[in-house]
Design goal:
The chain is mainly alpha-helical. The chain has 2 helices and no strands. The longest helix is centred in the last third of the chain and has 22 residues. 0% of the residues are buried.
Amino acid sequence: MAMYGMPASRALTESERRLSPTTTSGAISFRIFLSAAMYLRNVRVL
């Protein structure tokens, strides 16, 4: 999983830039939300 994690995220960011270059704030907020969700999930697991 760790191997495919970085390239997938990199491709995702590239696709986001390509699809919506004007809505950078939306992508940033989405990324923050995603990181928060991952953090909450990790806390729940622990």
